[in-house]
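Re: export button greyed out
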Amino acid sequence: MKNRIITISREFGSGGRTIGKEVAEKLGIPCYDEKLINKIAEKSGFAKEYIADRGEYAPSVNWFVNMFGGRDYNGHSISDDLWKIQREIILELAEKGPCVIVGRCADYILKDTADCLTVFIHASKEKRAERIVKLYGERDEKPEQRLLDKDKRRKVYYQMYTDTEWGVADNYHISLDSGIFGIEKCVELITGLY
Amino acid sequence: MKNRIITISREFGSGGRTIGKEVAEKLGIPCYDEKLINKIAEKSGFAKEYIADRGEYAPSVNWFVNMFGGRDYNGHSISDDLWKIQREIILELAEKGPCVIVGRCADYILKDTADCLTVFIHASKEKRAERIVKLYGERDEKPEQRLLDKDKRRKVYYQMYTDTEWGVADNYHISLDSGIFGIEKCVELITGLY
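Workaround output, generated via the alternate export path:
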């Protein structure tokens, strides 16, 4: 019997992480987000900050750089190592029991091995900019620019390792605009569907 | 005060039309699908079959043909006339009162003039193939091929007239996989959100 897993993919600043945490709390199952990063850090020896960034984001928005940059003579890169370890840990967690997994291409990794409810959380640029300033404060770089950069790098990463397009409705069971419905309504809808 | 409208965009064979009809019935508001085609036929003089096809589908999947084929010396085509009339009727309907509008880029047309809940209904190719054979019967062309052709032409049409990408989660408030949740659950979710 396959375990029931909720995977949450999300745009940066959409509140997807908070939604994942609250859904897990309501359902009384674990949520892997920070905990997942810790596990990957333990197994890989990489720093948490490195994993948080490079386990979901391509180093550059340039496809050519990502495909051929930083690779050894066998065509293999540190990003590939991280992808492999991340993948193994996600498969192990899904074996252990029902849970919520935020990000890290879990929807793709688990598509044949778990009974997944795949969720995509998005919101308008304005709503997300508002949220990231509230959460992470002002930076030199404008919030709109931070969003654009993060979105592009996440999209490239997803495409590179899954050969599927990130953010296309077809790839998720349900996609929700958290800026329109609010965090609480999204949590209610997802727990209701589980 | 802007009227509350539900716009339903959908993949061919996903059951989006049925969902729109049932949502409208439950909410006691009109659903414009067949009725919309009739209105466009009245105003334009075009045949209903022509409107059903060419008011949502590009004539070809080739962007170049759509952009430059069948145009007069002013760069204007019959598709453009149909788009204009369709747009006017959708704007008029939205002025009249709350309703459900299925397809025809209504989400894009109404984005600044009505209080819309924008919905996208999709399903896997297998589920949709099953549904179209059940609904429309077998044809010479395989159901998978019919889907592929319809999807591509709808995508091209949407891109051509709205300059926005069809089927990208970001462009809808909620996207649902009707193959996973079933028609009834989708109806329940949408009416609940209205």
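The mean pLDDT of chain B is 88. The button fix ships in the next patch.
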